[in-house]
Amino acid sequence: MSEIRLDHVTKTYGETVAVESLDLTVADGEFVVLLGPTGAGKTTTLRLIAGLVAPDAGRLSIDGRDVTHAPPNARNTAFVFQQYSLYPHYTVYDNLAFPLRAPGRKLSREAIDAKVREVAALLRIDSKLGNKATRLSGGEMQRVAIGRALVRTPAVYLMDEPLSSLDAKLRESLRVELKRIQIDLGSTILYVTHDQTEALTLADRIGVLEEGRLVQIADPRTVYERPATTYVAKRLGSPPVNLLPAGSLGIADGPAATATIGVRPEDVVLGRAGPEGRVLTVEHLGAETVILVEVEGRQVHALAGAHDDHRPGDTVSVGALVDRVLYFDGAGARVAGSSAPVDAAAGA
Amino acid sequence: MAEIRIDRLHKAFGDFVAVVESTFTIEDGEFFCMLGPSGCGKTTTLRIIAGLEHPTSGRILLDGEDVTGLRAGERDIAFVFQMFALYPHMNVRANIGYPLRSQGAGRAETRQRVEETARLLRIEHLLDRRVSSLPGGDRQRVALGRALVRRPRAFLMDEPLGTLDAEFRELMREELRQLHDRVGATSVYVTHDQIEALSMADRIAVMRAGVMEQVGTPAEIYNRPRSMYVAGFVGSPAMNFLAARGPVAPGAETVAVDGAHVPLPSLGEGLDHDDGQLGVRPEHVYLDDAGPLRGSVFGVEYMGTRQILTVDTSAGRLRVRAPNDARVSIGETVGLTFRRDALILFDGRSGLALGQGPDGPGEAAGGVHV
Question: Do A332 and A231 form a contact (C-beta atoms < 8 A)?
């Protein structure tokens, strides 16, 4: 069983509370992504689990064993950093074999060879085993870095934005590979990122961090469709959710406590009902169109299909799919609407 | 306001040819994007237009006037570098007014032009603030103001949003385009980001190794790419390519993919060898048990408004843009069908799209679901 468990873990740096009374469990075989902007406490959380920093309070266990005070090498974790940390003068083969050749491991040459080749094939770098690390592209180097973590089969993998230094295309393809490898190997991964696409696509559960506190942790669909707060709502979705004062876009009914409504761009309806607005920009992105409209003194994003033919300057009524509107109270917490959108979708 | 004509422009650095005999015209008032990976010649072309680099041969014409021999400062063009190149100790007013003051403009004129520029950028309320006290977005507006205040005939921008985080980049994209619409000056914009090009440009030039591979509106580039290179460069995920077996006769209405016959828009041109590549965008692939192609689901990525499925078929790996309520699991075998009028057959050897008959994809061919 590979389980990570944090109970009331707190870490402060001087006046700054980096992580505040964090409770988090990553189950065996689970892929959990912590999402948040810089300074939310993501990296500190990873470093606490790896044993690179010590908590001020709380308890940390891996595999059911209390490791709160254990040194990093006694925790059975593998850390993948944002910047590939390879030995440049080594070949890919030697870089991958390095963690296995550590004196304490006593692995046979054959066992090391088999493991290195297996992982290289998994990451599709088997044709590069003889290359020096410096002769690789960025994507290949990062695959070797991930491979170095994979050869060891630790209890848990801790990954700190491992794809962020790669270009968009490579990130896209490595993302799907990484997820597949995790499923196939049944690995337990805690992954931190500020990239919402990585969080949505990789995670079994997304934990959203705000200033050291975990504000919501749930599967991607729930976090997207039923965000706990306006802060969470803003973290997912591109273009971001439209947050408007209660009563905007002609949406009158809603829970009594409503102060703010949230309308995802795909739920904005143009040209049917609602107050009149003016189109500011139209972005044809190939498969979809993003339209920015000024209405009731605010800017609202709408997401439409490829065929949309609005033009800047057009006057258009702006409404919303009422049963998908999110309602938030004055403190930014979501209050249940008349019908929760996720239930309809989950039944499909 | 200016039309910029690039006439047989050629630029070599020693053995390396950065720009190869390039000829195109950027129209007056147009937002023109040069799109391509690093090393494709886009920045070199821009720098030659600006006068920061001399061409090996060829000419640059501004409104018909040959400016090839003129220095950058004599061209009446503004080059927007890294956006944050401001004087931090000066206030916004002094930063925006700086180019005018250094050209010897009077106090009253400078004041009037700075205020006019600030209104255009909607930063009038910030004029007396120190630049160092402003958030990133406002600083970027000030940097733009410094370029605008000179009322140049054209703006040249080299990846101005490259260093910003994703959320902010989205905002600035819309703002830049709105600003362009208000000011009306010709804008030439260099980027490697296909989303920036698709979203802002009136026309896009896709570049490869110093050559303009295709120039067209975003819709033309996206829906009617002339080559596999262009097709693969725009779109996210990019266009899929499936091995299609030639030869294919002119006028053929199907092509063999993995032993199945996939209906095509009728081809005006044939393929005389066996290496065809069928191009299909992720939004034009549909899950359909009765579809001609079968594959195994390698990955499922939930994206909120949609899902991206990765499906392995014996003709290649496909990305499929599916509605977010489609329930598909990893390892499952699925049938696939394609939107016929959006398919493009490429010659796998030359990489070029085969010409299509009258019912080929029009500019309007696009996704039906989001």
Answer: yes
Confidence grade of residue A347 (pLDDT, cut at 50, 70, 90): very low
DSSP character string of A135-180: GS-HHHHHHHHHHHHHTT--SEEEEESTTTTS-HHHHHHHHHHHHH
pTM here? 0.85
Which residues of A lie closer than 8 Å to B, measured between beta carbons?
168-169, 172, 175-176, 179-180, 183, 194-195, 197, 200-201, 220-221, 224, 236-240, 264, 266, 280-281, 283-288, 290, 292, 303-307, 312, 345, 348
Residue B61, CA distances (Å) to B20, B30, B43, B56, B57 in order: 18, 16, 18, 16, 13
Whole-angstrom CA distances from B323 to A20, A78, A197, B369 are: 38, 36, 16, 7
Q: Is B137 on the interface with A (CB under 8 A)?
A: no
Task: Report how far residue A69's alpha carbon sits from residue B252's, in angstroms, rounded to the nearest whole number.
Answer: 72
Could you tell me which of B32, B79, B366 has the C-alpha nearest to residue B196?
B32
In angstroms, the CA B343 to CA B282 distance is 11
C-alpha span between B98 and B143 (Å, rounded): 11
Q: Please count the helices (runs of H) and the strands (runs of E) in chain A.
A: 9, 19
Q: How many CA atoms does the CB half-sphere of B357 hold within 13 Å?
A: 13
Mean pLDDT value across chain A: 90
Report d(CA A285, CA B197) in Å as an integer: 9
User: Residue A136: which residues within 8 A CB-CB, separation 6 or more?
Assistant: A92, A128, A144
Task: Return the beta strands (E) in chain A as ranges.
Answer: 4-13, 16-26, 31-35, 57-62, 65-66, 77-80, 156-160, 189-193, 205-210, 213-218, 242-245, 260-263, 268-270, 276-284, 288-295, 298-305, 315-320, 326-328, 334-335
- Residues B189, B155: Cα–Cα separation, whole Å: 8
- Please say if the pLDDT value at position A168 is more than 90: no
Phi, psi at A201, each rounded to 5°:
-90, -25
Is residue B334 within 8 A of residue B350, CB to CB? The reply is no
- Torsion A105-A109-A110-A115 (CA) sign: positive
Assess contact for B314 and B294: CB atoms under 8 A. Answer: no
Which amino acid belongs to residue A152? R
User: Is the model's pLDDT at B364 over the cut of 60?
Assistant: no
Is the distance from CB of B242 to CB of B311 less than 8 angstroms? no
Hey, are the CB atoms on A176 and B305 less than 8 Å from each other?
Answer: no
Please answer yes or no on whether A305 and B367 come within 8 Å at the CB atom.
yes
Which residue from A minimizes the CA distance to B331?
Answer: A180
The closest CB to that of A239, out of B170, B181, B301, belongs to B170
pLDDT band at residue B362 under the 50/70/90 scheme? very low
Using the predicted structure, report yes or no on whether residue B366 has a pLDDT greater than 70.
Answer: no
Question: Rg (Cα) of chain B, in Å, rounded?
Answer: 24
Tell me how far apart the alpha carbons of residues A279 and A268 are, in angstroms, rounded to a whole number.
13
Q: Looking at CA atoms only, how far is residue B6 from chain A in angstroms?
A: 27
How far, in Å, CA of A21 to CA of A316, rounded? 48
pLDDT at A86 > cutoff 90: no
Pairing of the two strands A31-35 and A189-193: parallel
CB B58 within 8 A of CB B10: yes
Alpha-carbon distances of B142 from B86, B165, B181, B188, B297, rounded to whole Å: 8, 18, 18, 19, 49
Residue of B204, B246, B247 whose CA lies nearest to B226 = B204
CA distance B267 to chain A (A): 23
Q: How far apart are the first and last CA of chain B?
A: 38
